[in-house]
Amino acid sequence: MNYTYYPGCSLSGSAMEYDVSTRAVFERLGITLTEIDDWNCCGATAAEAVSSLLGSALGARNLALAESMDPSSDILVPCSACYLNLKKVEMERREDPELAKNLDTILGEEDLAINNPPRVRHLLDVLVNDITADTLLQKTTRPLTGLRVVPYYGCQCLRPYAVFDDPEAPTSMDGLLRACGAEVVEWEMGARCCGASNMSTKPETAKKLVQKILMDARGADAIATVCPMCQLNLEGFQKAISRDAGTDLSISVLYLPQLIGLALGLDQGEVKLDKNLALMPGFMEKLLGFDIVIPH
Amino acid sequence: MGEKQGRALVVGAGISGIRSALDLAETGCDVTLIDAAPHMGGVLSKLEYQFPSDGCGMCRLLPMADRDTCLQACLRKGLVHGGIDLMLSTTLKGLEGEAGKYRAILETEPSIIDPKLCTGCNRCSEVCPVTIPDPFNQGLSTTKAVHLPVPHAIPNIYTIDMDHCTLCGECETVCPFGAIYLPGEDRLELKIPRTLVEMDVGAVVLACGIDYYDPLSGVNTFGYKALKDVVSNIELERILSGTGPFNGSLKRPSDGQVPSRMAWIQCVGSRDLEFPACSSVCCMIALKEAVLVRKRSRQTIETVIYYMDMRCFSKEFEAYRRRAENEYGVILKRARPHSVRYDRNTGGLSLYITDDSGIRVDEMFDMVVLSLGQRPGKSVKELAEITGIGLNPLGFFEDPLSGEGDKTGVFAAGSASGLKDIGESVIHSSSASAMALKVIHGARSPHDEEREPLNGFRDVSTQVPDIGVILCQCANGPDIEPQVKSMGASDVHVSGVMAMDRICTREGWDGMLETLAEKTFNRILVLACTPQLFLDKKAAISKAVNLDPAYIDFADLGKGEPLAATVKMGLARIRYADRLNSRASAMVPTVLVVGGGLGGMTAALSVADTGFEAIIVEKESRLGGNLVWLEKDITGNDFGRLLDNTCRRVEKHPGIRVFTNAVVEDSRGGPGNYTTSLKTCDNDSKIIDHGAVILATGGREAETSAYGYGTSDAVMTHREVEQALKAGTMDPVNLNVVVMIQCVDSRNDSREYCSRICCKSSLKHALEMKRLNPELDVYVLYREMMSYGFSETYFKEAREKGVIFIRYSQELQPEVLSGTDGVMVKVHEPILDRTLEIRSDLVVLATGILPSVIKPLAALFDARVDDYSFFKAADSKWRPVDAVNGGVFACGLALGPRDAKESVASARAAAMGALRLISSKSAGVSLVTAGIKPSLCTLCERCIDSCVYGARTLDSDAGKIRIDPVACQGCGSCAAVCTNSASFLNNYLDQQMFEIIDAAI
Amino acid sequence: MEETYEIRGTNWLDSVQKLLASVFETSSVTSMLVPVRHSTTHVLMPTLVSDPGELEGADPFAPCFPLNSAKLVSKLTKKHSNEIIAAVLRPCELRALVELVKIKQATMDNLITISFDCAGAYPNREYNRTGAEGKAAEGKAKTLGFMEQRLGSKLDDDTDKQLSTSCRICTGPFPENADLCITLLDHDPGALGVFAGTDRGRELIMGKAFEVKSLPGTRADTVKEVLQRKKEAAKKVFEDLAGKTATMAGLGNYLASCVNCYNCRVACPVCFCRECVFNTDVFDYEPFQYAAWAKNKGTLRMPMDTVFFHLTRMIHMGLSCVGCGQCSNACPNDIRVAELFTAVGKGVQQGFGYEAGKSMDDPFPLSVFFEDEFQDVTGI
Amino acid sequence: MDELLQLKTMLNPCIQCGTCTASCPNEVDMDLVPRKLWRMVLMDRHEAIFDSRTFILCSSCYLCTLRCPRGLPLTAAMARLKAIAAKRDLAKYRKSTRFYKSFMESVRRHGRVREGEFMGLYFLAMKNPLLPLSFASLGIQLMKKNKVAFELPAKPGIGNLDRLFKKVAEIEEAL
After folding, report:
1. Any idea what the Cα angle at residue C219 is, between residues C217 and C221, rounded to 5°?
2. Region B757-770: what's the mean pLDDT?
3. Which helix (H) or strand (E) holds B766?
4. How many CB atoms lie within 10 A of CB C252?
C-alpha cells in the first residue's frame, strides 16, 4: 500500500510540521509516500475567485503528473483546500465533457494528459479507511491516556463531497484518537467553518468564527486538525481573540498526524512540535507524563 | 337487476381496496380482497383522526342499500360482507390471460397461528417471554413476540414475529385451541405451509397504497430516530391515539413529559432533488395534527408548522387552515429548516431557520414532527411487472387521463398512483372499480348462475316467540351449560337450550345445523364468541331451518361481561326481533345525468357500459362543456381528441339517450325511484323514470373586474389566453414581458376556497410561452403555488426555464396600472423587501372557478349545496360524490374545482355510486329500519327535520308520515326525537330496549 | 324606537277593551280568544268572542289564568280554517304557542296575537281563595287593585307574597314578538301603550285613531330592573332546588307524593303527544313482572315509574318548557313540579343555545345538527 | 454568454427557501443575506449585487452547497461573483480580489506559492503602507518559528506556469 503524495504549498512553508509529521507517521507504518515531481499549487480559494477554469487547470496538471507517475496509486493529500481542489477536478472532469476537453487542451501545452487519473484521497480518509484505527491501536506504544482532545475537521475535507464521513456530523477522527489512547471530548464545532480564507481580508468576520470554536473547545487539552488553514487560523490568533472575548481562550492546537506520531512513539522533534504556535504548558506537562509501553 | 357478475380481485385492503371491493360486491360481483399484511385497513388502521372533522368516519363507506349483506360495525375493526372473500397475508404472484379472463395466482404466507382456530384469547401473549417494539405503535411502545397486529381488529388473530421468537414453545403449550404450530427443529418445516391458490378473475384492482419516505435512507439532518423527540407524523398519530403508546395522552417519547412547544417540518422527503413531487396531503395532515394538539392541550401547547407552500387546495381545506390559524392558534411559518439539533443545555431541540425578513433565528422546541413524503408502495414495482401496468418516472402506477380505450383489465386505485387524501382516494377507487365492472360485465357469460331470490321463508311474524338457544361450548372454557339451561327454563319464551361443541369447527357447525333442522323454533339465539364474524353463517342457518335471518341472532360470550346479563340481553333482543312488513319498490335501472360535459358524458358511459341505461340532459345545444374551449392540459393531453372520442362514444352507445337544449323541470320520488320531468327545446315536457341522478352541471372561469380587467386589452384571463393560443391570435414571440397573477378574487373573505387548477394553468401557459419564445420574461405572482402531486415537476421546470415566481400576500396585493405602452405591474417582493415595477405586455389573471348554479336543481332531488354553492357531499372524505340521501351524486366541477383527469375520476365514481344503488336487490327491507305508528303520530314533523337521509316525507293528502325504506339507514334519530313513540326503529323497540336494560342491570 | 300608540280609558280594563274592540273594527278578525268573566258563573275563562260588545267582561290582566291558552289556540288553528282570529295571551302563553307552531300543532297563518306586560298571577287555588271569583264588578275591582299595586311597585314581587313562584322567577314577563304588544309599565295609571311586534301588527295598527307617542323613556330601565330582580330570585330558587334534587334519591324525595295522575302533563301547554307513551302497553306490565320486581327488591313502590315519568317528560318537554307554571297548578299533591321543570328546561335550553318560545326563527334543537356542538360532552 | 446570465441560468431552480442563509457562518456580517443575493441575481439587479459585500465574505465552507434542497452549487456561485469582481477590478473588492490576484501571480511565477513573496506582492498591489501592520502579529510569529520570511518578488524560475495561464486565458477569451 503506497501513495502518491501531494504536499501542497502550505506544507512546504507555514505548515511544515504537518508535512514532516505525516511523512514520519507513514514511515513508522511502513508505507511509502512518493511525492509528485514538479507538483504545482492547487489554486487554493484564490484561483476560483479569479477564474474557475484556471482553478481546474491547476488541479488537473497535478492529476496528470500523478497519473504519469503511477496510475494505480491513490493521491494522498493532507491539506484540505488542496484536497478539495484536486477532488473537484477529478469529479467535474467526469461530469462535464466540455471542461475535460478544455483541460486536455491546456495540459497538451506541456504534453501532459489525463486518461484515468488516480483517486484523490484526503489524509484522514486514508488513515480511517486504509490504515484503520485497529492498526493504530496495535502500533500505539505511547498511549495519550487522559489527554482530552476535540477533533476539528473544518470544511473542505467534508464538503461538498461527502466521501468518507458525515459532512455535518463527522466522527472519523474519533476512532483514530481513541486508538491513540486519547479521550475524545464531545463538542459541536467539529465541522463548523473557521473562516480562514477571510482572515487576511476580512479579519473581523473570521475572528468571530474562530472565537466560537475556541469557546466551545474550552475544557479540552488540545484541538486536533487536518488542514493547515484551520491550524494556522486556530493557533495564530488566540491572543487577540482572547482579548476580544475577555477570557483566556488559549488552547493547544496540533495536527492529527502529530498526535498519532506521538502515540506511535515518535519524539517531539520527529513530529516538529517546535513549529506549533499554540502549545500550552498544561499540554506539555501531560505529554511528558506519557510513557512508552511495550506492546504485548 | 342484481344480476350475478363475475369475480374481481382487489389487491390491498386499505380504504381504497375496501371502497373498490364494496363497489364491486354491491354491484353483484364476487370479490376476492387480498392484503399482504395480516390485518386489513392499511395505513388508516393506525390513524384515528381525519380532517376536516378531526374524527373518523370510515364506516360511511359501508353499503347504504342491502345493508344486511354487510356487517354494520366500525370498519376500522374489520369488513365482513357476504360477497367479499378476504384473504390476509396474501399477495398476487402471477396473472395470466386477458381482460375478463384472467387467471390469478395468489400466495398466502404460511401461518404459525391457525387463523381458523385462534380466538384471540391472549393467553399466548401472556406467557411469551420475548418483548419487542410494537410495530403497530411504530415502535413507541412494546408488545410480545406473539401479539395482535392491530389491537382493535376483528377477527383478533395473533401473529408471531419470527425474527424475534426464540421458539421456546410456551405459547404452543398454553394455547387452549391448539392453534399454534411452531416450526420444528430445522425451522423450515411449517405445519401450515405457504399456499398457492389459482383463481379465475375478470378484472384486477390494484389498491396497494403507498409507503412513506424513510429519513434514515437519506442524510437525516433532522435526527430522526437519533433524537427521541423527533417523530414522524404517523408516530404522532399513534401517540395521539387511544390505543397508542401513552393511551392517547400527548407526551414526548424521551421522558414522558407533556411538550410545551411543538414544531412540524413539512416536505421531508418531498419536493426535493430525490423526489421532485409534492406529496399532496402532508399540509393538511400537519394542520390537523396541530389542531388536535391545540384542542387536546386546551391551547396550552404552542404549535408551529414550518412550510414552503401551505397547500390547502381542496374545496374545504382553505377554510380549515383559517380555522386552524384563527380559532386554534396554530402558528404557520414559511421557512425551511435544514436540521434539528439537540440542545445539551436545555434538553430541547433547536431549529435554525431564516424568516422572511432574512434574519436567522434559532427556535427551541421540545418535540418535532416530520411530515414525511410519499413513496411508492413496496409491492408496486412487482405488481407492475406481474400485471403489465405501467409506472411513472417516480415509480407509481401510471394514471392515464382516459382508461376507456385500454384493453387491460387491471386498474390502479387510490394512492398507488400517487398520494391522495381520503376523499380523492375514495373517488379514485370507485373510478377504478367502475372500469373493472365494465370489463367484468363485458366478459360475463350468460351461464352464470342467477343469485338466489330471497324470501320463501315460513311466516312467523305473528307467532308467539318460541326461542331456541344454541350454546357454543369450548372444551377448555368454564362449564356454563347448567347456568344457561336454568336461565332458559325460567324464560317462558325459551323452548330449548342446546349445548354444542365448538361451532367454529366444521364438525361443530354441521352438528348444529343438523340439530336445528329437526326443531321448529321461530327465533334462534346463538351464544358464541366473536359473533361479528358469523354474518354469512346466519344465512346458512337461515337456509337450514327455513327461517328469515331476521329471527336469528348471536350474543357475544367473549366480551368478558357477566354471563347472565349477556344471555338475558340476548333473549330480550331476539324476543322482539322482527322484519318490517314493508317492501321497497323495485329500483329503476336508469340513471339521469344532468350536464353533458366531460364529467356527464363519462358518468353516462360508465353507467351504460355496465348494462344500465343513462340519460343525459344538456342545456346547451351540443355536448362538451368546458372541453370545447380547452386545448390541452399541462401534461399535454389533447382535449380536442378527447372531446371527439367521448362525444362519438356517447352518441353511438345504445344505452345512452341524450337530450340537448333541455333542462330538468321538476322531480318527485326518492333514491331508487325518481320521476323527473324535463323541459326540452320546443317547450315540451318529457317524463323520465330513473333510479339515481348524477349532477354534472360543471363550472366556469370566474368573471372579474380586478387588476383593470376590461379596461385594457393587455389584461386577460387564462381562458382567453388558452383560446388565443389555440386560435393562433396570440404569438408569444411578439411579447417581451408577461405577468401572471394568481388567486384573483380567490382565497379571500368573499371567496374562501382555492380553485386548485389555476396554478397548473399558469404553469402550463408559462411553459408554453417560454417554449415558443425562450427570450420572454414571465413573472408569476402567487400566494401559494398549488402544484400538488406530480405537477410539482412543472413548477420546477418553469423555474429552470427562467420563469420568475414572486410571492405576494393577501395584505400587500399587486397593482396593475394601464398606460399607453403596455401595463405596469407593481408588486412587493418579500425576499428583497422592496416593491418591483414590471412593465409588461400582457397580464394574465387566474380568476378561479365558480360552479354553475345548481342549488335549485339539487333541491329538486333533496340534495344541498355547500357554502360556496358547489354540490355538498355527504362527507368530503368517505362519501365525496354522494348526497346524504344516497340517490343523488355529483361529479366534475359541480363538486368543486378539479382538473380534467380528476373530473373523469369523479364522474366514474359518481356512476359507481349510482350503480351501487340501482343494482341492489332491495327485495327485503334491512332489519334495522325505521317505521311509524300513525295512530300515535301527531304529525309534528320533527322526525322529518331530524332525518339526514331524507327518508321521511309528509304525505299531506293522507295525513301521514311516509318512510322510504331504501333511503332509511336505521340511524334512529327519528325515534329519538319522537316524543310520541310513533316513530320507532325496528329491532330497537321501546319494550325491547327496556327489557335489555333490565337484563343488563 | 317603534312607534307607540297611547290609549287612555277610564281604567286599564277600559283601555284594553277599547283596544280590543278596535281590532275588530279595523281588521277582518271574526273572533277573539280572551279571558272573560262569565256573566252568570262569574268565573274567568278564556272565551272565544265574536261580538265586540261582549268584550265588556274581558279581563286579560287578572292575576289568574286557569289554563295555558296556547293549548286552546292549537285547537283553533291546527286544522285548516279560513277564519281569522285574534288571541290575547300572556307572554308565557305566547311562548308556548310559538313552540306548538314549531311542532306543527298550531299555525299563526290566520292568527293575530296580542300580549302585554304581565304583572303575574296567583296560583289558581290561591286566587279562588281570595274571593275574586265573586261578582263581575268585584272581580274587576280586584284586578284593578292588583294592577295598581303591582305597577305602582314596578312589579316588585316582594310586595305580593301570594304570587306564584313561576311568576316570581319568570324572566320573560314582557311581550316581545306578539303582533300587538301592550305596555303598562311607566304609563299613567289606567293608560296603556301599544306597539307592533311584527309586520302584521304594523299593518293592523296603522291608521288607528290613537294618540301616537313614544314609549316612556324610563321603560327600558324599569324593564331591566325588573328582569334583574327576577333573575336573582330565579337563581335562588334554582340553587335551592339543585341542592334538593341533585341525586336520584333527592329527586325521588322531591317527587315522592306523585301518584301518576298525569295532571301536570295535561296542564302542560307543550306536551302534545297523541297518546302518551306512559298510557301505552309499554308500561302495561304483566302481573308476574310486578311480582318478580317486588321479590328482587324486597319492596316495590306503587304506582311504579313516577320518577321515570317526570324524567321522561323533562327529556321530551324540557327544550320547550316556557315556565308558565301550570303543572304546579295542576298537581293534586302540591309537588312543585314547575320549579323543577323550569330549572331543567332552562339548563337544557342553554346547552343548545335555545330559548323556548323566543322566536319562530330559531330552529328547534335536535332537528338541526352542528358538527362542533357539545364538544365537552362528546370529547371530540 | 454573459457571465451573470450564466450564473442566473445556473441558479434558476432556486426556491428562495433560505436554507443557504440559515447555514452560512458569515451571514451576520453580510449586508445582503445569500437568499437575497440569489434573488437579486435572478432579478438581474446587477448594481445591487456588486454593491454588496456578501460574496466576498464567503469562506468556502460549502455548507450551503451541501444543504441546498435544489442541489445548487452555491459556493461556486459565490466564487463566480468574486471572479467577476476581480475581472472588473471593482474598487469595493480590491482588498480581496488583489489578494487573490497576488496569490495567483505568485503561482504563475513559480508554480507554487511562496507565502512570503505573495504577501509582498499583495502589499505592493494594495499600495497601502499600513496594511502590512495588520498581518504583523501572525507574520512575526511565523518568522520566529522560521516558517516563512517576507521576501521581495523573485524572478520566475523553475515550475513557471506561464504557458498554462496563457492557455487558460485564451480559452476563456474564446468563450
Report:
1. 100
2. 96
3. helix B758-772
4. 14
Pairing of strands B84-87, B30-34: parallel
Interface test with A, best of D60, D72, D82 (most A CBs within 10 A): D60
CA distances from B539 to B180, B549, B552, D145 (A): 30, 6, 9, 99
Distance CA A85, CA A90 (A): 9
Q: Is D17 on the interface with B (CB under 8 A)?
A: yes
Q: What pLDDT score does A1 carry?
A: 77
pLDDT of B376-410, one tens digit each?
Answer: 998 999 999 999 999 999 999 998 886 555 668 99
pLDDT band, very low/low/confident/very high, at C379 (cuts 50, 70, 90)? low
Q: How far is CA B340 from CA A170, A199, B221, B227, C365, in A?
A: 16, 30, 7, 9, 50
Residue-range domains of chain B with CATH: 7-108+199-209+377-443 (3.50.50.60), 123-130+145-193 (3.30.70), 212-375 (3.50.50.60), 467-575 (3.40.50.2300), 590-698+852-918 (3.50.50.60), 702-848 (3.50.50.60), 930-985 (3.30.70.20)
Intervals of chain A under pLDDT 50: 296
**What is the nearest CA distance from D94 to chain B, expressed in angstroms?**
26
d(CA B976, CA B145): 47
Q: What distance in Å separates the CA atoms of residue B203 and residue B6, rounded to the nearest whole number?
A: 9
CB–CB of C61/C9 below 8 Å?
no
| Phi and psi angles of residue C277, each rounded to the nearest 5 degrees, phi first | -60, -25
Q: Which triple of cell numbers denotes residue A166?
A: 458525515
Chain D contact for A45, CB < 8 A? yes
Q: Measured at the alpha carbon of residue A40, what is the angle toward residues A37 and A43, in degrees to the nearest 5?
A: 155
End-to-end CA distance of chain A: 25
For β-strands B7-11 and B30-34, DSSP reports them as parallel
Sign of the Cα torsion B665, B668, B670, B673 reads: negative
Residue B982 has pLDDT above 60, yes or no: yes
For chain B, which residues lie within 8 Å of any Cβ of chain A, measuring from their own Cβ?
Answer: 219, 221, 339, 341
As beta bridge partners, residue B679 has: B663, B685
How near does any CA of chain B get to the CA of D91, in Å?
25
Chain A contact for D128, CB < 8 A? Answer: no
Asked, as a colleague might, if the bond just before A151 is cis with ω within 30 of 0, I would say: no
**If DSSP codes are grouped into helix, strand and coil, which group holds residue A194?**
coil
Find the mean pLDDT for residues B955-962: 90
**Which residues, 6+ apart, have CB-to-CB distance to A72 below 8 Å?**
A118
ipTM higher than 0.85? no
Q: In what helix (H) or strand (E) does residue A241 lie, and over which residues does it extend?
A: helix A238-245
Cell 461527502 sits on residue: A162
A215 close to B (CB below 8 A): no
Q: Can you give the residue range of the structural domain that contains A50? A: 3-123
Give residue C289's pLDDT.
84
* C335 vs C262: CA distance, rounded Å: 12
In angstroms, rounded to a whole number, what is the distance separating the alpha carbons of residues A30 and A28? 5
Cell numbers that stand for B46 in this block: 393506525
User: Comparing B539 with B127, which gets the higher pLDDT?
Assistant: B127
Residues of A in contact with D80 (CB under 8 A): 52
C-alpha torsion sign, points C203, C205, C208, C214: negative
| pLDDT tens sequence across B801-860 | 999 999 999 999 999 998 777 799 999 999 999 999 999 999 999 999 999 999 999 999
Kindly list the residues from chain B whose CB atom is less than 8 angstroms away from the CB atom of residue A166: 219
**pLDDT tens digits for C87-115?**
999 999 999 999 999 999 999 999 999 99
Report whether C68 contacts C267 (CB < 8 A).
yes
- Cβ distance B161 to B136 under 8 Å? no
Both C153 and C31 in one domain: the answer is yes
